[in-house]
Design a protein that fits this description.
- By secondary structure, the protein is mainly alpha-helical.
- It has two domains: 134 residues, no CATH class; 160 residues, Intergrase catalytic core (hpI Integrase, Chain A, Orthogonal Bundle).
- 47% of the residues lie in helices and 6% in strands.
- The strands form two sheets. A three-stranded antiparallel beta sheet has the order 3-4-5. Strands 1-2 form a two-stranded antiparallel sheet.
- A hairpin with a 4-residue loop joins strand 3 and strand 4.
- Helix 2 packs across helix 4, helix 5 crosses helix 9 and helix 6 crosses helix 10.
């Protein structure tokens, strides 16, 4: 029998997750009000994958079983049916995905260790296998550890003007242009775009309030004139008159007036990507392009962090590495100052 995550929904909200396993269902209930809804559902699906692999009583799982699970995930096919092997850059399951699944399993067993009887009182996920960033770890003295699967800090390539122009020009509605420009010029995540409410727009200040950012953080971001113009045109000319407080709605069909979904936005992006022959255009790359250009324009890391909604400035520091020319210029300026203050020139020292 294959395990499948069941969801109970009431008033458009998931109220219960179940996999039909007592210990797992208790853990999912424990998580329900301790994390974001998307995180809750993601953990449920990750545990579904683990259950369908392990096929043995959960209290009998050993570290060897966990290693076998990791091995299976490294060779599991992705949506295109290809595998990743051991490479972090291969086309199969990414190392980030594998680490996330390990974190879900580690957190589940930590829950059993703390609140129930776990044989030997030991989590079968070795401390070097996954970050146990469980929601109550600080109360019980459990510290996070390094991930088993190395995830290199990759440098995302920003979109070129030759990619952006035909893609944007292929968009036919103010709604679609507004959504794209919010990602491309304001750096919003696609989930943040779709969760925007009418009350979140400050037309006078040219700002948006992102109330449901990643991790539940709220921030205020600036919006460009071009983005604001498309947003106003959409609201005045296209948006259905509906009671929904969400900005972006379905404009036709039986779901007219309903909030646009992530799947619908993905479909829109995919359609125009094919139409414009710009396969590299993706929502997150538009966001990366925004912050790369802002950094190249001189925006400070602190301001960039606030605009991006990064909880740690270390996440923002990646954009330092995306601007090598600017770094080289700043280095040469500073080195010239150092040499001049010492009474020598950089060229004379080199020669």
């Amino acid at each position: 029998m294959a395990y499948k995550l069941h969801r109970e929904v009431a008033e458009g909200r998931i109220t219960r997750l179940s996999l039909g396993v007592t210990e797992v269902d208790a853990y999912l209930k424990f998580l329900q009000y301790r994390c974001r809804p998307n995180t809750w559902v993601s953990y449920g699906y990750d545990l579904q994958i683990f259950l369908n692999f392990i096929r043995k009583p959960l209290l009998e799982v050993s570290s060897a079983d966990i290693l076998a699970f990791v091995d299976s995930q490294q060779s599991a096919p992705n949506r295109q049916g290809r595998t990743n092997g051991l490479s972090s850059k291969g086309p199969g399951l990414s190392n980030r995905t594998i680490n996330r699944r390990l974190a879900a399993v580690a957190s589940f067993y930590e829950y059993l260790r703390v609140f129930h009887d776990l044989p030997g009182n030991k989590n079968p996920v070795p401390r070097s296998l996954a970050k146990r960033n469980v929601f109550w770890a600080h109360r019980y003295g459990n510290t996070a550890s390094l991930a088993l699967i190395r995830v290199p800090q990759t440098l995302p390539r920003p979109l070129d003007p030759e990619e952006i122009a035909p893609f944007v020009n292929s968009l036919l509605t103010h709604r679609d242009k507004a959504m794209v420009l919010l990602m491309l010029l304001a750096g919003l995540r696609k989930s943040e775009v779709l969760k925007l409410g009418l009350k979140d727009i400050d037309f006078g200040q040219h700002t948006l309030t992102v109330r449901e950012g990643k991790g539940g953080h709220q921030r205020v971001v600036a919006i460009s004139d071009a983005g604001l113009r498309e947003l106003i045109s959409y609201l005045n000319e296209e948006r259905p008159h509906d009671n929904s407080d969400k900005v972006f709605l379905v404009m036709k069909g039986e779901n007219r007036g309903q909030p646009l979904t992530v799947r619908a936005l993905d479909t829109i992006i995919e359609y125009h990507r094919r139409k414009a022959n710009t396969p590299g255009v993706q929502c997150h790359r538009m966001r990366h392009t925004c912050f790369t250009r802002l950094r190249q324009g001189g925006m400070s890391l602190e301001a960039l962090q606030a605009q991006a909604g990064h909880s740690s400035i270390n996440t923002t520091r990646i954009y330092l590495h995306l601007c090598p020319k600017e770094l080289q210029q700043e280095y040469l300026q500073m080195s010239d100052q150092l040499f001049s203050s010492s009474g020598a020139s950089r060229r004379s020292v080199i020669d």
